[in-house]
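Pinned message: reference record for Sporulation integral membrane protein YlbJ
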Amino acid sequence: MNISKIKTILLAAGVTIMAISMILFPDESFSASIRGLHMWWEIVFPSLFPFFVISELLIGFGVVKFMGVLLEPLMRPLFRVPGVGGFAWAMGMATGFPAGAKLSARLRQERQLSRVEAERLVSFTNSSSPLFIFGAVSVGFFNNPRLGIFLAIAHYLGNFLVGLCMRFYGKKEPRKYREKRSLWMIFSQALSSMHRTRLKNKKPIGKLLGDAVLSSIQTLLMIGGFIILFSVVNKLLYHLNITLLLANITEYVLIAFHLPKELGIPIIAGIFEITLGSQMTSQVNEAILMHQAIITSFILGFSGFSVQAQVASILAETDIKFKPFFIARILHGFLAAGITFILWKPFAEKFHIVSGNNAIPVILQEHDLWWENTLNLFVKFGPIITIISLIIYIYLFYKKMDSTNP
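Predicted structure (tokens):
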């Protein structure tokens, strides 16, 4: 029996087991689906939708090309990607998963990146958003807003180091020698590139905006499906004791790193779904805050199979390979956990992370309140934004169908 047939049997068996498990545990499956839906409904959709639409418009109007020319002297030496990668990197950090993958795929479709450059770029432009790190994890799960500062430092620094490591991926391109140019010459070239890009895109503004909305909502619907699916899968794996079995294996690794074995189940949960893993880590009373922060940093860096499946679905529309992204996520998880371990002692006291220290600077108090209020606003008004956006999507979709079928 060849490997292809074995793979077919394993995939068929896995899907069959999941289907039977949903029949055996209907209540648990339903509650997990509702949990995933609430996450997408209240937080993911309203936070990502505006950025996705604006990104499409910025690409269409040539602003990304403009930024690419300006950022070329920075991005090329550091990460061996064109300057347009700086836009994807910034948007990926601001909005979170899987914005970096979507923008990288879009730039590849626009032929602004080679395949290898796109694979390098997508490896370090996908990260958790500040809203998720500060609002959901530090405030919602740990009830310790100041922990978010430390987790963000470890997460984004780890992501930067991943980008430096991935610059060695792929064949070395011949070095391009460029003549020295003044800042005015670079700015003038950037303006010319933006103008040419806008002229090349002959769509009217209304058409461009409509396509941006349709493309963004289609991507977000796909993301919502993956969030709900993996929320159910994670719950079923727990009730089938598969999570416990895998956690028993990770106990040996945790003991080797002097971490409590009770963190095994949260790690396995986080490998599948980032939110549940972070929440379960915060609930392990046998672990001190430093141990919880190390595991949470690893989960945030690895991102979970749920996010990786979203990225794989986006990359499938291009010739960008998924394997470099997957390796980068493993590397990011270990780098973020290592940074958390190294920097914990000098930074924990400085940022007043450890509970019991009542001397909190005013600037940190305002920072904590801002993220908590932002999260509450999304929970309150997020569903309204989602409903209005879906109504607009239905209207634009049927309008487009009518125009193509006279």
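Pinned by admin. Summary line: The longest helix spans residues 362-404.
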